[in-house]
Write a structure and sequence with these properties.
It is built from 7 helices and 11 strands. It has about 230 residues and is of the alpha+beta class.
Length: about 230
């Protein structure tokens, strides 16, 4: 498996899921790990972004030791869970400003999170990538390095422009991505990156991988159009 393929298979798993297990160093039970479930999005630099309360135990743990891991597991497909793909991102949890591109992207994916700021003191963190580990079955086990975490080619403003344009003018195009979508369901584009896009229908999020990555000779317009073509 080539280095490009290794990175791509891990990125596809990360981008296909919306939550993972955040592992921190326990402050209350010194020397032991502490696991908790947290939603995330991947930012432009390829780092997971999370939103957590200062009252939460994992935040207190991070304040004492910012070295964390986020483990993401492939969606339920039945059978032996040991055969499921999973990836663990090891890194340093760092606060990012609430008006940063990372925070804005998170809130676009989880707009309901805006209400959290009314009740408790929440902060955005990104997990600055140090190293990763992918397990995808026999013979598909490898470490991930920084160069395997592709960056998003679109600035926050560019991505927001694409999202707004598609949601305002091309809902019918996005409907063609789905089979048997009922008339009362409208797809909403959440975000795009070099390898795919994320769309919400009702309360369900779907990931669509582009036929090939965005490049100088394959634009985002080409990719979004090709997704709607049926054989």
């Amino acid at each position: 498996m080539s280095e490009y393929d290794k990175g791509q298979v891990a990125r596809r798993l990360l981008n296909s899921r919306s939550y993972g297990i955040l592992s921190t160093h326990s402050k209350e039970v010194e020397g032991y790990p502490f696991g908790s479930v947290t939603p995330y999005v991947i930012n432009r630099e390829g780092n997971p972004v999370i939103l957590i309360s200062t009252l939460a135990q994992h935040t207190k743990n991070i304040s004492a030791n910012p070295k964390v891991a986020l483990t993401v597991i492939e969606g339920d497909k039945g059978g032996d869970i040991q055969a499921y793909g999973r990836v663990t991102i090891i890194g340093d949890a760092e606060i990012v400003p609430k008006d940063s591109p990372s925070a804005k992207r998170y809130l676009r994916y989880y707009p309901g999170a805006k209400r959290y700021f009314e009740a408790h003191d929440f902060n955005f963190y990104h997990i600055k990538f140090v190293r990763g580990r992918f397990i995808g079955g026999f013979g598909k086990i490898f470490w991930l390095e920084q160069e395997d975490m592709a960056t998003n080619p679109f600035s926050n403003e560019e991505e927001e422009g694409i999202v707004t344009h598609m949601n305002n003018d091309h809902v019918d195009t996005m409907r063609r991505y789905f089979e048997n979508l009922s008339d009362d369901k409208n797809p909403v584009l959440l975000g795009v990156d070099s390898e795919g896009c994320d769309i919400m229908v009702g309360k369900q999020r779907y990931r669509f991988d582009f036929p090939r990555p965005i490049s100088p000779d394959y634009s985002i317009k080409d990719a979004l159009t090709d997704l709607g073509k049926k054989d």
